[in-house]
Automatic annotation (TrEMBL):
<protein>
    <submittedName>
        <fullName>NAD(P)-binding domain-containing protein</fullName>
    </submittedName>
</protein>
<dbReference type="Pfam" id="PF03807">
    <property type="entry name" value="F420_oxidored"/>
</dbReference>
<keyword id="KW-0560">Oxidoreductase</keyword>
<feature type="domain" description="Pyrroline-5-carboxylate reductase catalytic N-terminal">
    <location>
        <begin position="3"/>
        <end position="92"/>
    </location>
</feature>
<dbReference type="InterPro" id="IPR028939">
    <property type="entry name" value="P5C_Rdtase_cat_N"/>
</dbReference>
<dbReference type="InterPro" id="IPR051267">
    <property type="entry name" value="STEAP_metalloreductase"/>
</dbReference>
<dbReference type="InterPro" id="IPR036291">
    <property type="entry name" value="NAD(P)-bd_dom_sf"/>
</dbReference>
Length: 204
């Protein structure tokens, strides 16, 4: 796949490395592609993978958003025409929501004609770089109305090494999925279990 990642922080950087390793063409869309902030990631994946947001999006059919939630309006202005493209919302409006919307997913659904899914938001970036615990992959989770976007998100999760990508439901479950992310944050950080913890659905 051709994937544009908007946001070069820990989550965007981790997913970029995993998808490049899996053989996908990944571009990092940034307002300032080779800023000092991006140099560290550029040394790992190559400077040629950085572009301004509009150019990165033009070349890709899948877009992952991993920016602070309140930055989404500026990002949307730079996306250009994304009609029919898949956008994966990997953000969490835990501290501050993109008002008047409850989540970035809802902002994207209202302001674009893209196929949107919430995914890659429920665990730490360390688990995205290495989702294997005791020889077995942990689970990723997704929510949204677009079956097309969910199918893409599921494939990309499996390429990272996750055992499965479990469907939380449609758009009415997006906020629940963000609360699920807060559960991981609560355990890992607030309750001091550490970031090397993960969720996996098991069946009897």
């Amino acid at each position: 796949m051709n994937v544009a990642i908007i946001g070069s922080g820990n989550v965007g950087g981790a997913l970029a490395q995993q998808w490049i390793k899996a053989g996908h063409n990944v571009l990092i869309g940034a307002q300032f592609p080779l800023s000092e902030k991006n140099i560290s990631l550029a040394t790992k994946i190559g400077e040629d993978r950085f572009a301004v947001i509009e150019n990165a999006v033009k070349q890709c059919e899948v877009i992952l958003v991993a920016t602070p939630p309140t930055a989404i309006f500026e990002v949307i202005e730079q996306l250009g025409d994304v009609s029919g493209k898949v956008i994966i919302d990997a953000t969490n409006a835990v501290m501050k929501s993109p008002e008047p919307y409850k989540t970035v997913y809802h902002a994207l659904a209202d302001k674009t004609n893209a196929e949107i899914v919430k995914c890659f938001n429920t665990t730490g970036f360390e688990n995205m770089l290495d989702p294997i615990y005791d020889g077995e992959g942990i689970d990723m989770f997704m929510a949204g109305d677009s079956e097309k976007a969910k199918e893409i998100a599921k494939k990309l999760a499996l390429y990272c090494g996750f055992a499965s990508c479990i469907d939380f439901g449609k758009s009415d479950k997006v906020e629940l999925l963000e609360k699920f992310a807060l559960s991981w944050i609560n355990l890992a950080i607030m309750q001091s279990y550490g970031r090397d913890i993960a969720f996996k659905l098991i069946r009897r």
